[in-house]
Specification:
This protein has 282 residues and is α+β, with helices and mostly antiparallel strands. The chain folds into four domains: 41 residues; 42 residues, no CATH class; 110 residues, 2-Layer Sandwich (Tetrahydropterin Synthase, Chain A); 40 residues, no CATH class. Helices cover 50% and strands 21% of the residues. It is built from seven helices and eight strands. α3 runs antiparallel to α5. The N and C termini lie far apart (164 Å). Belongs to the prohibitin family. One of its GO terms (cellular component) is mitochondrial inner membrane. One of its GO terms (biological process) is DNA biosynthetic process.
Length: 282
């Protein structure tokens, strides 16, 4: 004979109304599942909150550490400015260094040799204008960087080099004639280099090389020689011709003025009986 299945508590035969205990068991199971779900959500929320706090803490620590570090590249030096003690006398070298955030500030200087061209227009011994461009290779003395920053500033090259170059060039070029600037070129260049190097040393600068722009210098000197010869020829002509050359120039100027007036559409009234055009004789 087949065995009848064992009835469990709460089982209800089909076709019969549910027993009172079965609904209670189903409600209890749903309540347990909901409680587990809520508990898992609370655990996940607490985990995310912990991760957020940890990330915020790491970000704050990273920001503080990053603000307390600074890098000095190759060929550079740093001077520290302290808000309470001023510019520090210690010069820091290449690499990564520490400082006090929001209290100290690093000022980075380029200590490599850098070129600079300084154009100068000056007069020679014979009063001829000479246009010379001086090319300079300069760098600061590393031990004097605090003094340079305190007394001159970060843009020391813009403030110092044009001034001292103009001063030295005018002093040296004024000792030579326009022709001597060509024939004694090496002497002029050496004298400029020595005087400028000595002058730059007082500001804490080292000049590795000083050279004149040869082509521009020779061209301006040749032009100055031409102006000198032209002035000499005019003086000789005046000495020979007397006032005749002056009157000739007046006539040429008057002719040019009359030509310009004839081309103008406006009506120009000239007073009669007067020497209007450069006081020419009637």
């Amino acid at each position: 004979m087949p065995r009848k299945p064992h009835k469990m508590a709460g089982d209800n035969p089909p076709g019969h109304p549910p027993l009172p205990g079965s609904r209670h068991m189903e409600s209890a199971g749903c309540f347990r599942m909901a409680r587990r779900y809520i508990r898992s959500i609370a655990i996940m929320a607490k985990l995310f909150e912990t991760i957020g706090k940890l990330g915020l803490g790491l970000a704050v620590v990273g920001g503080v550490v990053n603000s307390a570090l600074y890098n000095v590249d190759a060929g550079h030096r740093a001077v520290i400015f302290d808000r309470f003690r001023g510019v520090q006398t210690v010069v820091t070298g290449e690499g990564t260094h520490f400082l006090i955030p929001w209290v100290q500030k690093p000022i980075i200087f380029d200590c490599r040799s850098r070129p600079r061209n300084v154009p100068v227009i000056t007069g020679s011994k014979d009063l001829q204008n000479v246009n010379i461009t001086l090319r300079i290779l300069f760098r600061p003395v590393t031990t004097q960087l605090p003094r340079i920053f305190t007394s001159i500033g970060e843009d020391y090259d813009e403030r110092v080099l044009p001034s001292i170059t103009t001063e030295v060039l005018k002093s040296v070029v004024a000792r030579f004639d326009a022709g001597e600037l060509i024939t004694q070129r090496e002497l002029v260049s050496r004298q400029v280099s020595e005087d400028l190097t000595e002058r730059a040393a007082t500001f804490g600068l080292v000049l590795d090389d000083v050279s004149l722009a040869e082509q521009q210098k020779q061209a301006t000197i040749i032009s100055a020689e031409g102006d000198s010869k032209a002035a000499l020829l005019i003086a000789e002509s005046l000495a020979k011709a007397g006032d005749g050359l002056v009157e000739l120039r007046k006539l040429e100027a008057a002719e040019d003025i009359a030509f310009q007036l004839s081309r103008s559409r406006n009506i120009t009234y000239l007073p009669s009986g007067q020497t209007t055009l450069l006081q020419l004789p009637q």
